[in-house]
């Protein structure tokens, strides 16, 4: 009898130990996921904030009568930080910067602007072609390179709205865009994230929907098929319609 009780108690305590280990593991996973969500939100907001600087300064960039536009890397970064604070409700904190990702984003912005000075400051030339999407693609490429395969960011869009093949959504992005972001009952502006495999690698994926604003419609609005200032065909997009997304991958 005593032996049975002893065995039963041993099994019981072993069971409790397993539960404790499981709870600890789940807690750790939840904590890691929360951190990934926070980091992803900060990076996509910073990325969007930097692009906004280029978007609102298109008239200045395309001013043929003006040489130096005053849009150095330092100036764009400062304005991006202001946009970030307005969007996030808090200042960009570089002291909390796991893997140096936020600093890498700022460095990428600085490099793109430094390399583009002759382009945007050319006097006597109107339309420069230094579009927000081009700036964003260049920043994304430099950022992803700096992160050495640990993190990747890109602009993408619904397949019927993609102009640059490099921005085509992958299978996961396409599914989220079509099944969630384009769904009538999906909360507008809400990012989607989950653990997912990317080319056989475990990863955390985060995608943020974007919608056409007035400044987008000059190139992407109506009438559909009409050529815009870049020579591309307008998509026929409407104000407030889903027009794209910012996609981020954190490899584990």
From TrEMBL:
Residues 103-250 form the Tll0287-like domain. InterPro entries: Tll0287-like_dom (IPR021796). This is DUF3365 domain-containing protein.
């Amino acid at each position: 009898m005593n032996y049975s009780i002893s065995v039963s108690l041993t099994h019981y305590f072993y069971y409790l130990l397993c539960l404790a280990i499981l709870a600890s593991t789940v807690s750790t996973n939840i904590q890691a996921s929360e951190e990934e969500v926070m980091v992803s939100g900060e990076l996509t907001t910073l990325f969007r904030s930097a692009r906004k600087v280029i978007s609102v300064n298109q008239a200045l960039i395309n001013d043929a009568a003006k040489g130096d536009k005053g849009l150095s890397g330092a100036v764009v970064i400062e304005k991006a930080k202001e946009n970030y604070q307005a969007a996030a409700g808090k200042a960009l904190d570089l002291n909390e910067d796991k893997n140096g990702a936020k600093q890498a984003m700022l460095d990428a912005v600085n490099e793109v602007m430094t390399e583009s000075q002759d382009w945007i400051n050319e006097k006597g030339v109107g339309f420069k072609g230094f579009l927000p999407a081009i700036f964003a693609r260049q920043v994304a490429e430099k950022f992803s390179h700096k992160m050495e395969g640990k993190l990747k960011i890109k602009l993408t869009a619904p397949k019927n709205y993609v102009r640059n093949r490099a921005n085509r959504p992958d299978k996961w992005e396409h599914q989220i865009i079509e099944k969630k972001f384009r769904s009538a009952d999906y909360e507008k502006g809400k990012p989607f994230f989950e653990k997912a495999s990317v080319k056989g690698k475990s990863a955390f994926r985060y995608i943020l929907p974007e919608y056409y604003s007035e400044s987008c419609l000059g190139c992407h609005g109506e009438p559909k098929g009409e050529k815009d200032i870049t020579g591309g065909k307008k998509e026929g997009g409407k104000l407030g319609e889903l027009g794209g997304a910012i996609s981020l991958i954190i490899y584990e």
